[in-house]
From TrEMBL, chain A:
It is a peripheral membrane protein. It comes from Cuculus canorus (Common cuckoo). Residues 58-98 form the Zinc finger Sec23/Sec24-type domain. Residues 127-389 form the Sec23/Sec24 trunk domain. This is Protein transport protein SEC23.
């Protein structure tokens, strides 16, 4: 099956697509029996070094309900200069520019290697990127200082023409005007009162009609930038000003026990500000908060210190007074933001919870980042924040804005839904299924912000009836059209068209089976599970997962009845149960030992990372370093913990380096400093280097933990490994540790 | 004194008449006219017509009116008119004017009469009309009026025109004189007199004066004329008829106008005969001799009487009268009815008269003849006057009580000696007199002035007299440097020693008993233990040994240091804060106001009020600018540059910052300076024209709340707040509402929002001072609500222009910022058992019925408190007032300022009237009336004022004055200026607006007056008019003031007029060029610019003198007065004339003389 693995890998590299099934069962009935739905993981902006964008407009199918883009799968009549849409079979005339087309002179989009192609199009005015900082001033002095420095530093990382704005909040919310000389000016809002976008714009003086227009003067838009520029200024112009302003930021001075944080209103104002001035352009609202919102709409906890913030226990007992209201507030905000194509990042640094549970939708629906740390004065935050502005290999920011993803399918397929940092655009059409998986009922989604790793799970439904067989050799096709604003502010369209063979599940099950992508399937199922976990009780989701697994095994396993030992799964399914096992124990589905905020945080990242990262999240990677050989991956099992090993565990969120008992003793004894034990020094160094490598690329920065046998931090490792050795069997001599796969 | 008063009355009438002709005609005229038709009288009647009285008038004049009128009522009215006429007659007197002022006044009265006779008839009519009008109610007039007039007339005629007229005149005269005489007598008699005079007078005089007044007098006087006597008899019998005439007479008055032409001849003719008013002469004569003042009046009367009266009236009357006769009877009846006494008198008359002689009238009789002549002569004098006027009688203005005279007299009598407050119930010198005060146990009059220093013991007396018992209290009044501020007393941790029951504070009137172990409260008589730490032995007189060591035992005013129990939330207050809130909308910026304010603040902030000798002020400052939104400024000293914080959410105001908003000036000096530099720049290009207002106050309030202190907001505002926000207003100015029942809405706030806001402000001790710079209506009535209720001040600069108004505004601002001020104040007035403070006027808020709460109280704010009886007082113990003011000083110290005042109590009304203070009374009446316009139609308010004053005076006349003719107006010495001042109040813009007075002006004035002290109301209502050209350039003194009448202005002089708000410099057309050159630096009259706002600085003695006078006046007033140059015959002169309050005003306000006549009529009405 190497071929299939290669095929899968090749496809992923070229198109950023991983399907759960690479040969498709040809009827609805069969598809349902496959248990794992036909679905794919799509990384719309997968970095492609070898993909130079073309500088013209895509050619679209002329059928209004289709509008598919010309692609290599289309049949072309070079003589008649016609092409047939492979989705709706509409015959289309090539546009005049394609007059010279011939078999030997084909445009890129017709070449098979360009199943993914990117167009640069000229549409509308290019507006610079916008970064609006929303800064909590209810911080400890040190934290605030660190945050201020980070923010000041970030100014140098922004694109020079980017517009930047500053909103600070505490008990009040201040919108700073950045262009003032001699006096710093800000608009102040009460932190307890929610305002409509209109009110906010009126109060900020952004609504124009009030200004008396002199006759004879054109009523043109040129005034708009002038107006909005009071709060959003090109960074190169107000660099100094803003640096000073940030430098002068004071802690919220109102004397209170628990700081009064008006996060809800601050966000609302930020959203309203952008909504009024720069709708549908790339903009990031970056919220930096050092604690939970404590007043006004969106408050998560009261201002009395005696009442702690809600826990899962409270939520189950329906004791979280503010949760529903707050969630509603932030959801409304998130939807507005998404509608405007802006995104909200949340950088929450506090030892206790900060209300991410309530605010999660702000980041989830808009594609924003969510970063959780203990303090702004940690490298975790500082580097993560810095990494937001990282540039890709081609010197471009690894961020894109205001994307819309349009999915087109051939007739036998319908779209059931998507799971990822997107919202529905409610585009109904013939290819939209009535059965929803994830965010369904549409063939288009909006992704307000995405980076090259942002990955969506898209679920399909085979609708071909069993009694209407697909002709032999028939292929199903799916086209993904992603329009987005590039970080260079260009408008771009990336089109990916893929096709897969149909197969009759009864006669060709082995083909289908062989083309099963268990990694993708695991992630896709996990996303479904996590998605359900958001709205359903935990145990129900687990039961559902279990049932799915059992059904899958039933379908594809080979076994003799009543003989457990006879059970076998083919290679293409072999890892799947293991993924499910770890998924069940993962923080995405288990809330025990996690605060609601942490759960939200984990789930947030799980729903957007690509397949590799997702797998790491589901089943952390464990490497072992020892004198017995080169570093090797070992089972995520307690049996892997040996005294003479150094373990490196990557859970995506944490990187744990664990020194085995003996190693730790050696280290304490200082052998690594002895020239004669240089190899030991190297051994110690090896995992550090590897960890560093991971740290370098991971976003957000994982928590880096260096511990040893018996260390308190070792719990991070111990909580992840499969507890095959427990107090019940650890010391039972002679008992062979049992692999638990299920 | 009474004489004087009487005299005055006389004159007034006289004057009125002149004026009347004009006035009456209009006013009365309308009515009269109908009747007027009748020949000469017709004219009169004309006016009267409505009343029909016109006819009567005729009859009247005939003297019949008088006699017949004997019917007091008519007589009264007539008389009053008559007096006026007499006044005119006086004109002659004027010639005689020489006679002492008082004398003059009397004469005037007579004159009036005489006038009646003549033009008087007209006047009389008017008066009568006036009276009539009132009586109208009495049916007789209206119905009978028509007929009655006829009858009356007939009667009159019968009476023998001449005789009648004479009689009347004489009567009048007699009355006048008599009264004057009587008055004269009374004065000397003093108290003693009062009773006797009052009583006997009543009956006697009544007989004589009252019913007799006219008739009797006429009779008496008439007697001489025979005809008169005849008339009298006739009248008496016919009385009914006669009274009618009297009434009718008034009517005629109205008719007068027309009559003039025709009249002149007839009336004159008739009057002369009437004039014979020999009686008048007699009276006058008598008067003059006896008490010049009082008498003075008498003299004129005669003349007046003599001349016009007899002749014309009679005749005129005669003619028409015949028919009226029948009616007269009816009238008389009525009159009689009302005048029961009168009639009696009349009969008595004969006797009465004789009696009268006794009084002073006696003398009168003889002179009358002469006077009469003079009266007749006067008319000639009248000739000097404009033709029309001449014919009508004129009362000699010099004969009526002169405010200037009174002020000057008081100045020379009382200005030299310090006023020592040790004695109970002492009447202090007038506010216009410079005097020093020595506190020996009673509060200085600078702190408290009362309407009367002798209070009736019973409420019956008080009600009878109708004299309001009120105190005008200025708790934080500034003292001249020679006087010491109240001492600060610290009674330690337990706080001030107070009565256990009523909580009165320790004061000099507390009685220590039982060897000093207890004290008995002087207010409620409760006995309280003396706290051990306060114990002291008593000396042999029962005084504490430490009496002189303790201010609270020996002084009338002192302060206690308050303990924490007296503080809000039981926490000592923080020092107060000043917040400057500047409108930066387009108008404010464009006019340069914003820049001006910012520039000024830079230096002004160094002069914040500080306590005692503290080095720097404890007051913190904050800054806000606003248009449609508010801008707060962080001026924390640690900042490199100020921070501006915009709050746009005006619907729900809050303060965006805590730290750095209110700062110490010295610490944040550079940041503040930088801010004040930048504010004008920042808004230089603003195009925002809309403003908010309520949120501005809310912002200040919230800021003070957040800072937990009291304070003051200085709001500089330019326009009607129409921006969408709480307290948004709409333009509701509507001049059509004037003189309708809805007029009151112009004074009421548009919305109750501001009332609630004010309440919150008061609770926090947030005082609001408002500087308004309107270019159009901005609804002062509403915007001022908070200011008013928080004890703040409003300053208004309409059409503000930098060049002309800058000085005034800056001076006001400086003064306002620097002046001594207390915060978060609560005032309570405690009184002896028997009276109680029932009503309060001023700028404050009351949440209950006793405590006056003021967020801020400065040294100019005055509270007028009215007292009512709830029990009896005793003459022995008198009545005590203790005003306790709890406030926070400008350094944040909580203090109690105590003012004590002891008053006498009386069982005799005369004592009350002898210890009244008219200025204070006017202060009270004005405030009372100005509050009244909020709830009643202005007309009702005016009528109520007139009626109350008439009752006051009538009560005096009835109970205190010596018997005299009803035709005489007798005024208590202390109140002889009441009519003139009251007239000024009635004519003020609030109560009688001219067309050029805006609604805002009225609301502004209304609020302004409500917190004025006595000195301010005095000059406000009766402006000071100084002949600059008469100033002695070598001395410091001011030239002697002259009365506010155009007649007093000479074309060749320059005058200065000030009323506390404005200064006018009036330049006559014939002023020497040299003077003009000296003063204005231009070569001719025509080159004088009337846009000058200051006098040019020229190096010559005259210029220096004038400028020093101006600046001296500016110093005296709490507001910087706007200087306006008025050239004679220039447009601005109209404005200037508005302030000549003794003249008839364009807005319909009566002249002094006319009003006096009117009052007299009212009084007579009451007496009848």
């Amino acid at each position: 099956m190497a071929t299939y693995l290669e095929f899968i890998q090749q496809n992923e590299e070229r198109d950023g697509v991983r399907f759960s099934w690479n040969v498709w069962p040809s009827s609805r009935l069969e598809a349902t029996r496959m248990v794992v739905p036909l679905a794919c993981l799509l990384t719309p902006l997968k970095e492609r070094l070898d993909l130079p964008p073309v500088q013209y407009e895509p050619v679209l199918c002329s059928r209004p309900t289709c509008k598919a883009v010309l692609n290599p799968l289309c049949q072309v009549d070079f003589r008649a200069k016609l092409w047939a849409c492979n989705f709706c079979f509409q015959r289309n005339q090539f546009p005049p520019a394609y007059a010279g087309i011939s078999e030997v002179n084909q445009p890129a989009e017709l070449m098979p290697q360009f199943s993914t192609i990117e167009y640069i199009v000229q549409r509308g005015p290019q507006t610079p990127l916008i970064f609006l900082y929303v800064v909590d001033t209810c911080l400890e002095e040190e934290d605030l200082q660190a945050l201020k420095e980070s923010l000041q530093m970030s100014l140098s990382l922004l694109p020079a023409d980017a517009l930047v704005g500053l909103i600070t909040f505490g008990r009040m919310v201040q919108v700073h005007e950045l262009s003032c000389e001699g006096i710093s000016k800000s608009y102040v809002f009460r932190g307890t009162k929610d305002l409509t976008a209109k009110q906010i714009q009126d109060m900020l003086g952004l609504s124009r009609p009030a200004v008396p227009i002199q006759p004879g003067r054109p009523l043109q838009t040129p005034e708009q930038p002038v107006i909005s520029s009071r709060f959003l200024q090109p960074v190169h112009k107000i660099d100094m000003n803003l640096t000073d302003l940030l430098g002068e930021l004071q802690r919220d001075p109102w004397p209170v026990t628990q700081p009064l944080r008006s996060t809800g209103v601050a966000l609302s104002i930020a959203v309203g500000l952008l909504e009024g001035t720069f709708p549908n352009t790339g903009a990031r609202i970056m919220l930096f908060t050092g604690g939970p919102p404590t007043q006004g709409p969106g408050m998560v906890v009261g201002d009395e210190l005696k009442t702690p913030i809600r826990s899962w226990h409270d939520i189950e007992k329906d004791n979280a007074r503010f949760m529903k209201k707050a969630t509603k507030h932030y959801e409304a905000l998130a939807n507005r933001t998404a509608a405007n194509g802006h995104c909200i990042d949340i950088y929450a640094c506090a030892l206790d919870q900060t209300g991410l549970l309530e605010m999660k939708c702000c980041a989830n629906l808009t594609g924003g980042h969510m970063v959780m740390g203990d303090s702004f004065n940690t490298s975790l935050f500082k580097q993560t924040f810095q990494r937001v502005f990282n540039k890709g290999f081609n010197g471009e920011f690894r961020m894109a804005f205001g994307a819309s993803l349009d999915v087109k399918t051939s007739r036998e397929l319908k779209i059931a839904g998507a799971i990822g940092p997107c919202i529905s655009l409610n585009a109904k059409g013939p290819c939209v299924s009535e059965n929803e998986l994830g965010i369904g009922g549409t063939s288009q989604w909006k992704i307000c912000s995405l980076d090259p790793t942002t990955t969506l799970a898209i679920y399909f439904e085979v609708v071909n009836q069993h009694n209407a067989p697909i002709p032999q050799g028939g292929r199903g096709a799916v086209q993904f059209v992603t329009q987005y604003q590039h970080s260079s502010t260009q408008k771009r369209i990336r089109v990916t068209t893929i096709a897969r063979n149909w197969a009759d599940a009864q006669s060709q099950l082995q083909h289908i089976e062989a083309a099963f992508d268990q990694e993708a399937a695991a992630v896709l199922m996990a996303r479904l599970g996590v998605y359900r976990a958001e709205s359903e009780e935990g145990p129900d989701v687990l039961r559902w997962l279990d049932r799915q697994l059992i059904r899958l095994c039933q379908k594809f396993g080979q076994y003799n009845k009543d003989d457990p030992n006879s059970f076998r799964l083919s290679e293409s399914f072999s890892l799947y149960p293991q993924f499910m096992f770890h998924l069940r124990r993962s923080p995405f589905l288990q809330v025990f030992n996690n605060s609601p905020d942490e759960s939200s945080y984990y789930r947030h990242h799980f729903a957007r990372q690509d397949l590799t990262q997702s797998l790491i999240m589901i089943q952390p990677i464990l490497y072992a370093y020892s004198f017995h050989g080169p570093p090797e991956p070992v089972l995520l099992d307690s049996s892997s913990i040996l005294p003479d090993r150094i373990l490196l565990m990557d859970t995506f969120f944490q990187i744990v380096i664990y020194l085995g008992e003996t190693i730790a003793q050696w280290q304490k004894a200082g052998y690594q400093d002895m020239p004669e034990y240089e190899n030991f020094k190297h051994l110690l160094q090896a995992p550090l280097d590897d960890a560093q490598e991971i740290l370098q690329t991971r976003f957000p920065m994982p928590r880096y933990i260096h511990t040893e046998h018996g260390g308190s931090q070792a719990r991070f490792l111990l909580s992840k490994v499969n507890p095959s050795q427990t107090h019940n069997n650890l010391y039972a001599w002679g008992q062979v540790s049992r692999e638990e796969l299920l | 004194m009474s004489v004087n008063q009487q005299a005055h009355t006389g004159p007034p009438y006289g004057q009125p008449q002149p004026g009347y002709q004009g006035y009456q005609q209009p006013a009365y005229g309308g009515q009269p006219l109908p009747g007027v038709p009748q020949s000469p009288y017709g004219a009169y009647n004309g006016p009267m017509p409505g009343y029909q009285q016109p006819v009567p008038p005729q009859g009247y004049f005939p003297s019949l009116g008088f006699p017949s009128k004997g019917c007091p009522v008519s007589l009264n009215s007539d008389t009053s008119l008559a007096p006026n006429f007499i006044g005119s007659l006086r004109a002659p007197p004027t010639s005689e004017a020489p006679p002492p002022a008082s004398g003059v006044s009397l004469p005037s009265g007579h004159l009036a009469y005489s006038q009646f006779g003549q033009g008087d008839v007209q006047n009389g009519i008017p008066t009568s009309a006036a009276q009539m009008q009132r009586p109208p109610a009495s049916q007789p007039f209206p119905p009978g009026s028509a007929p009655s007039p006829i009858r009356q007339t007939s009667a009159f005629q019968q009476y023998g025109p001449t005789t009648a007229g004479v009689q009347q005149l004489s009567n009048h005269m007699a009355g006048m004189t008599i009264s004057s005489a009587a008055a004269a007598a009374p004065p000397p008699a003093g108290l003693g007199y009062g009773p006797p005079t009052s009583v006997p007078p009543v009956s006697g005089s009544f007989s004589a004066a009252g019913s007799g007044h006219y008739t009797p007098y006429t009779a008496t006087q008439g007697p001489p004329p025979t005809s008169v006597s005849q008339d009298l008899p006739l009248a008496q019998p016919p009385f009914p008829g006669q009274p009618m005439p009297a009434q009718r007479l008034p009517a005629p008055a109205p008719g007068f106008p027309p009559p003039p032409s025709s009249y002149p001849p007839t009336t004159v003719a008739s009057r002369p005969p009437a004039m014979p008013g020999p009686p008048l002469p007699g009276q006058t004569v008598a008067g003059p001799p006896a008490a010049q003042p009082n008498h003075v009046s008498s003299p004129p009367p005669p003349s007046a009487m003599a001349g016009p009266h007899s002749g014309p009236p009679m005749r005129g009357l005669h003619g028409p009268p015949p028919p009226t006769h029948p009616a007269q009877p009816g009238y008389q009846m009525q009159q009689n009815g009302s005048f029961g006494q009168m009639r009696g008198p009349q009969p008595n008359y004969g006797g009465g008269y004789p009696g009268t002689p006794h009084y002073g009238t006696q003398p009168g009789p003889p002179p009358p003849p002469k006077r009469l002549d003079p009266d007749s002569i006067p008319s000639p004098q009248l000739n000097e006057l404009p033709p029309q006027q001449k014919p009508r009688h004129r009362i000699d203005p010099d004969a009526i009580p002169s405010p200037i005279q009174v002020i000057e007299d008081d100045r020379s009598n009382r200005g030299s000696e310090p006023f020592v407050t040790g004695v109970r119930g002492q009447v202090p010198p007038l506010v216009t007199t410079n005097f020093l005060v020595k506190d020996q146990g009673n509060a200085s009059p600078r702190y408290i002035r009362c309407t009367s220093y002798n209070i009736p013991c019973t409420s019956d007396m008080a009600k009878q007299s109708q004299v309001p018992l009120a105190a005008v209290i200025k708790p934080l009044a500034a003292l001249p440097p020679e006087e010491t501020l109240p001492y600060l007393v610290d009674h330690g941790e337990s706080g001030p020693v107070r009565c256990n029951r009523c909580k009165a504070y320790m004061c000099p009137f507390m009685q220590f008993i039982e060897g000093g172990r207890r004290f008995q409260c002087c207010f409620c008589s409760c006995v309280t233990e003396v706290p051990p730490h306060y114990f002291q032995h008593l000396d042999h007189t029962g005084k504490r040994v430490d009496f002189y060591d303790r201010p609270e035992l020996s002084l009338g005013s002192y302060e206690f240091l308050a303990t924490v129990d007296y503080c809000k939330n039981n926490k000592f207050p923080s020092p107060p804060a000043f917040i400057f809130m500047i409108d930066v909308s387009y108008n404010a910026v464009k006019s340069g106001l914003v820049r001006l304010i910012c520039e000024e603040l830079k230096s002004l902030l160094d002069y914040l009020p500080r306590e005692g000798n503290m080095e720097e002020s404890a007051i913190r400052v904050g800054f806000v600018t606003y248009n449609k939104v508010l801008h707060f400024y962080n001026v924390k000293s640690s900042l490199a540059q100020p921070q501006m914080m915009v709050v746009s959410d005006v619907a729900d105001m809050f303060v965006p910052l805590l730290d750095g908003f209110l700062v110490n000036v010295n610490e944040s000096r550079t940041v503040i300076a930088s801010l004040l530099d930048q504010i004008p720049e920042m808004f230089a290009d603003t195009r925002e024209t809309e403003t908010v207002f309520a949120p501005v106050i809310q912002a200040g309030l919230e800021a003070l709340k957040a800072a937990e202190c009291a304070g003051k907001l200085f709001i500089f505002h330019t326009s009607l707040p129409i921006a969408e926000a709480p307290g948004k207003l709409k333009n509701r100015d509507d001049k059509k509402l004037i003189n309708t029942d809805k007029e009151k809405t112009l004074f009421q706030p548009q919305t109750s929002f501001y009332n609630n806001l004010a309440k919150d402000c008061v609770a926090q001790g947030c005082c609001v001072d408002l500087f308004l710079f309107p270019n159009q209506y901005l609804d002062v009535a509403t915007l001022g609500v908070v200011t008013f209720q928080t004890g703040g001040s409003i300053y208004k600069y309409a059409y503000f222009q930098l060049e002309t108004d800058q000085d005034r505004f800056l001076n006001d601002l400086r003064r306002d910022v620097q002046k001594e001020v207390g915060f978060d104040a609560v005032m309570r007035v405690r009184t002896s058992t028997g009276i109680r403070a029932t009503d309060f006027f001023g700028a404050f808020y009351m949440s209950n019925t006793t405590d006056v709460e003021m967020a801020g109280l400065d040294c100019d704010k005055t509270i007028t408190v009215e007292f009512k009886h709830d029990d009896k007082l005793s003459e022995d113990s008198g009545a005590l007032l203790q005003c306790a003011l709890l406030y926070t000083s400008c350094a944040g110290q909580r203090r109690l300022r105590i003012h004590n005042l002891s008053l006498n109590c009386c069982t005799q009304l005369a004592d009350l009237y002898r210890n009244c203070e008219t200025d204070t009374l006017i202060n009270y009446l004005a405030k009372y009336a100005y509050r009244g316009v909020l709830s009643s139609p202005v007309k009702a308010v005016r009528d109520a004022l007139i009626s109350q004053c008439a009752q006051i005076l009538a009560c005096y006349r009835k109970n205190c004055a010596s018997p005299s003719s009803a035709g005489q107006l007798i005024l208590p010495e202390c109140m002889k200026l009441l009519p003139v001042y009251l007239n000024c109040v009635l004519k003020s813009d609030v109560l009688q607006p001219g067309p050029e007075v805006t609604t805002d002006d009225r609301a502004y004035i209304r609020q302004l007056v409500t917190s004025m002290d006595v000195a301010e109301t005095n000059v406000f209502f009766y402006p000071r008019l100084l002949p600059l050209t008469k100033a002695d350039v070598d001395s410091d003194s001011l030239p002697a003031a002259i009365r506010n009448s155009e007649e007093r202005l000479s074309k060749g002089d320059i005058y200065l007029l000030e009323n506390g708000l404005n200064i006018f410099v009036w330049v006559g057309v014939n002023v020497q060029q040299g003077l003009i050159q000296n003063l204005f630096g231009v070569s001719s009259f025509s080159q004088i610019s009337n846009t000058l706002s200051t006098l040019p600085v020229l190096e010559n003695a005259f210029s220096k003198k004038v400028r020093s006078i101006v600046s001296m006046l500016q110093m005296q007033r709490s507001r910087y007065m706007k200087l306006i140059i008025v050239k004679q015959e220039d447009k601005l002169e109209m404005l200037f004339k508005h302030f000549l309050v003794e003249d008839k005003s364009l807005s319909g306000g009566a002249s002094y003389v006319d009003f006096l006549c009117h009052m007299h009529k009212e009084i007579r009405q009451l007496l009848s």
